[in-house]
Amino acid sequence: SKVTTSIKKSVTNIIKNKEKPIEKEDPKKLEIELEKEIELEKEIELEKEIIKTEKKKEKKLAKQQKKIVEVNFFSKTLDELRQDLGNPSLLRNDGGTQMARFDTLSCRLFFFFNSNQNLPRVEHFEIRDTKGNLIDKKEHIQNCYKNFKLT
């Protein structure tokens, strides 16, 4: 790793400096410099992790926004979905949640309703492939919408 390489390089430099009788550096000073260098490497690695995490969050938000912008299913009733998509392939009640699934050959749309309400409306939806995996790529989402004739 970079830290190991940096430490080896610093130790090698310390040894070389000790072999030179003309230049004698204070070992405590070298140790302090080495500790500072190690700390700096740790801070850099931490910053890289923070940047990666932020990029993942941004990507997830962008994906959610694209879903909402493409077709807004939120607050639709089951009857409105039937008008847009036809009859669901599966309709299931589980406790206070009702789920409607609409299928094509390549994808499935899942809609979740709070069945305790007088007029249940979509509160959550998911786009999945036929194996049940979430579809997250824009072109796959667009293809799914085309299969449902939503675009």
Can you describe this structure?
This protein is of the alpha+beta class and 151 residues long. It folds into two domains: 2-57, no CATH class; 71-147, Beta-lactamase Inhibitory Protein, Chain:B, domain 1 (2-Layer Sandwich), CATH 3.30.1450. Helices cover 53% and strands 19% of the residues. It is built from four helices and four strands. The protein has a four-stranded antiparallel β-sheet with strand order 1-2-3-4, covered by helices on one side. Helix 1 (2-19) packs antiparallel against helix 2 (27-70). The chain is rod-shaped. 7% of the residues are buried.
Order of helices and strands: HHHEEEEH
Query: Separation of termini?
Result: 49 Å
The total tally of domains equals 2
Helix content: 40-55%
| Number of extended strands | 4
Morphology: rod-shaped
CATH architecture annotation name of the largest domain: 2-Layer Sandwich
Give a quick account of the main beta sheet: strands, pairing sense, barrel closure: 4 strands, antiparallel
List the uncertain runs.
Answer: none
Overall residue-averaged pLDDT value: 81
Number of DSSP helices?
4
CATH class call of the largest domain: Alpha Beta
The chain-level structural class is: alpha+beta
Largest beta sheet: strand ordering: 1-2-3-4
Q: Please compute the radius of gyration using only Cα atoms.
A: 29 Å
The fold-level CATH name of the largest domain is Beta-lactamase Inhibitory Protein, Chain:B, domain 1
Determine the strand fraction and express it as a percent band: 15-25%
